[in-house]
Design brief:
Elements (H helix, E strand, L loop, with lengths): L4 H66 L2 E5 L7 H18 L3 H9 L5 E10 L2 E8 L2 E6 L3 E5 L4 E2 L12 E3 L4 H5 L2 E2 L5 E2 L2 H18 L8 E5 L3 E7 L2 E7 L4 H7 L5 E2 L2 E7 L7 E4 L5
Parallel strand pairs: 1-3, 4-7, 7-10, 12-14
Antiparallel strand pairs: 2-3, 4-5, 5-6, 8-9, 10-11, 11-12, 13-14, 14-15
């Protein structure tokens, strides 16, 4: 029995419907794939743009912060006539660098480090305006020098510190003979980089300062050297005329007043040495007359 035309049409329609469904399903899968790729690309693109923006903002902020720190107006003062002027200039440069990189809060931390150099007495700072600061570097002031392993500075209070790179840096006198090699090798250092000395040595150092002041108060011209001997005390050297002065131990003022009463040059007779380390006496040694 042959199918009717109506039934044939129905079968063809059903086949076409199935084909359409499968074709559309494939199309949907393809479209879904494209959509997933597009979404994924958008996600990564968003992440890239977000990272770039975050990097730019972060660096802009850091750059702005550095600019703010570098805008600090820092004036640093220190005495140019100090024998420590080169060291003070170095500290001033380091301080400016620290403040520019870390801000004004780094000043206190840097001050503690700088004091370890040994030649600084103190660092003081003061705010004088908006982002304006004034810093004063106050060095230790040497009064004379002490010959040890090298030539060391001595303050007016008898504190030994640092070392002189040039003898011309030494004010007044250089004192020799107070420390021997063994004492120098065993010497210790305080937290402020000054040298620890015994009570006995401290007394001798203070006497050398007293003698320096007493000699400065006279009209005698002397060499810039004092010699200390355990048995004879201090010796100074006049330059005009050239006379060796044995002054012993303190006090010195009365001994120097006795010296002022001695005629150090009388015609062709020259005095070579005056010993004033005896109580109320002066022993004079005359130079041999030239033949």
């Amino acid at each position: 029995m042959k199918p009717t035309k109506k039934k044939a049409k129905s079968v063809l329609y059903s086949q076409n419907k199935v084909d359409f469904f499968f074709k559309n399903k494939i199309l949907i899968v393809i479209m879904s794939g494209f959509l997933s790729v597009a979404l994924l690309f958008g996600y990564f693109q968003h992440k890239i743009y977000t990272s770039i923006a975050s990097f730019w903002i972060r660096n802009s902020f850091q750059s702005h912060t550095r600019t703010l720190k570098s805008e600090i107006d820092l004036k640093i003062f220190y005495p140019l006539t100090s024998p420590h002027s080169l060291g003070l200039a170095m500290i001033a440069d380091q301080l400016k660098s620290a403040v520019n990189h870390e801000g004004i809060d780094s000043l206190g931390k840097f001050a503690k480090i700088a004091l370890n150099y040994g030649f600084l007495a103190k660092i003081s700072s003061k705010k004088v305006g908006f982002k304006k600061y004034m810093v004063q570097l106050t060095p230790k002031e040497p009064y004379l020098c002490m010959q040890m392993d090298v030539t060391r500075f001595v303050t007016e209070k008898g504190q030994i510190y640092g070392h002189a790179t040039d003898r011309n840096q030494c004010p007044n006198y250089i004192v020799n003979g107070v420390f021997d090699a063994k004492e120098v090798s065993n010497i210790q250092i305080n937290s402020d980089r000054s040298f620890v000395v015994t009570q006995e040595k401290s007394v001798i150092i203070l006497e050398s300062i007293e003698l320096t002041k007493n000699l400065e108060a006279t009209s005698f011209k002397t060499r810039n050297e004092l010699i200390f001997d355990k048995s004879r005390g201090f010796t100074a050297y006049l330059t005009t005329p050239p006379v060796e002065l044995v002054l012993g131990r303190a006090p010195f003022q009365i001994k120097l007043s006795r010296l002022s009463k001695i005629k150090l040059k009388n015609g062709d007779i020259n005095i070579e040495k005056v010993e004033l380390d005896y109580k109320e006496k002066a022993f004079i040694k005359y130079a041999k007359p030239s033949s």
